[in-house]
């Protein structure tokens, strides 16, 4: 299987040192993508917050897809950028880190707290493989209306459904179903989201009727 095929199909691979011409060419392609991403990320993080148009221009060039009304607080970091798809109405607080050696999909109306990390890439447990640079990549999928709390880490191959809250400090190692609250290390479902959550924004705190207007 080619280097590209291994990267996109969850197989072990090394990013460098290939002899086949096809793989050498792909090595050069992904090296260009990584460096180009770092240049754009540097520009984004150095752009003044008030220069909204320029920050948006950079995101449009950096990401595979960038929906309407995206705001990513600086600093933020990507490995490739071109493998990350972000839907509409996305907000991320400071220090978002996306290791996107393969594709990352983020839905609509998603919020990240500070210091959220998404990594599609891992390394084998057997040390000899790591010595030679072996790694694998599995895509991450995040649905709509998801809130990911601060200092959360989402690991390779995870799918998070729609209408999910991931509690702060979680390490998400496996799929999380829709309409649930989950947290912990490893992250686990604690309860379903119910009608009570529409009536109270936290335990003992009823939703005030004027929450969305003066």
UniProtKB/TrEMBL annotation:
Its EC number is 2.3.1.-. SUPFAM superfamilies: Trimeric LpxA-like enzymes. It is an enzyme of class 2 (transferase). The keyword Isomerase does not apply. Residues 4-68 form the Maltose/galactoside acetyltransferase domain. Keywords: Acyltransferase, Repeat, Transferase. It holds the Pfam family Mac. Belongs to the transferase hexapeptide repeat family. This is Acetyltransferase. The lineage of its organism: Bacteria, Bacillati, Bacillota, Clostridia, Lachnospirales.
